[in-house]
Amino acid sequence: MTTRHHILTLDEAKALPLWRRPITLLLLMAVAMPIAFSTWSALLNNWVIEVVDFTGVEIGWLHTVREIPGFLAIGVIALMMLMREQVLGVVALGLLGVATALTAQFPSLGGILTLTMLSSIGFHYYETVNQSLQLQWIEKSKAPQMLGWITAVGSGASLLAYGLLVLTWKTLGLSYNTVYMIAGGITALIAVFCFFAYPQFESPEPQLKQFVLRRRYWLYYALQAMSGARRQIFTVFAAFMMVERFGFEVHEVTGLFIANFIANMIFAPLMGKAVARFGERRALAFEYVGLVIVFLAYGGIYYFGWGVVLAAALYIIDHLFFALAFALKTYFQKIADPQDIAPTAAVAFTINHIAAVFLPAALGYLWVVSPGAVFGLAAGMASVSLALALMIPRHPEKGNETVFSRFVAQAAE
Fold first, then answer.
1. How confident is the model at residue 396 (pLDDT cuts 50, 70, 90)?
2. What is the per-residue pLDDT for 342?
3. What pLDDT, on a 0 to 100 scale, did the predictor assign at position 374?
4. Is the CA virtual torsion 17, 21, 25, 30 positive or negative?
5. Dihedral, CA atoms, 146, 149, 153, 158, nearest 10 degrees?
6. Which CATH number does the domain 7-412 belong to among 3.30.360.10, 2.160.20.10, 1.20.1250.20, 3.40.1000.70?
7. Which residues pair with 202 in a beta bridge?
């Protein structure tokens, strides 16, 4: 029998039982990660406001600290010299679980920032490696649909976690510590299972273990930078608004998250089919137009006093648009040299988090003066993303990375 010490090619892995194949490992990790991360996110705003008396300033600093490991995701390249990508991903997943389990043990600003940093290292390094493995292990022709299904499976795991929170939070009188311990522990146990139960899978193309920054990937880098910037505003301030302005309790915030993930479970596979049919340019343009409208409406909630029902609806729509982000992955998969996928995933994650290092803290100060202005800034960022998305060609590939590529090639002749 094949043991975890064996290294199998993807072709050899097809002879394994279905539960031990690469795609199953990707799906299992897609289940494990949100159990810890989504639970952490669902409880965070209520916990820091009720227990530690956070304001917008402290929550901004917390998310700045949380994003530092994302900015340093380029360190994955160095770690790849010491261990295989698959091992690194599983270890990072385990770190996320353990740090989440311990979160409520340290109810002070320093303790929260320390545990946030550790869980964030696990999350961001796992996500960097996971994105790389997805693009290496999944065929290009099947990538949009399969990434849609992986998104749906992750949403299902979040839905399960949130559903249990809603049903048991008040009924059983659960504490923050109990929930964090259970959710983080489950993720850590799944990571241990993934480490011992699966062989090591060899990607078709050996990955470069060095810093890669190529001029022809410039549009991908720019889209990643803008994606990271505007995502911070949604991640940090949209849910915070629901608690601070409308007084949502834990079970109400969790109920909102449940609605998000039900929508993702239904629509993510359909979005995968849409990307395959209409292409990355149209899919991303649709996402960014929608986000401009949503962020402007968020601002209207503060300037015109629009109510909680609209705010909740916008939150769900906002989250649904972000599910289309996997179109950016498939765009890169089509234009990339196969051996560039792993190092570029690390570089892209770092670029994605450039704004994340300073934006939450800076906007935390703006938030206490004008929350609507924060969302107005996000709408402007989504508009820039739209302009960039329109530069993606209808059929991107190596040598045809942008709509300008053919003109550059003609000028070089």
1. very high
2. 82
3. 87
4. negative
5. 110
6. 1.20.1250.20
7. 9
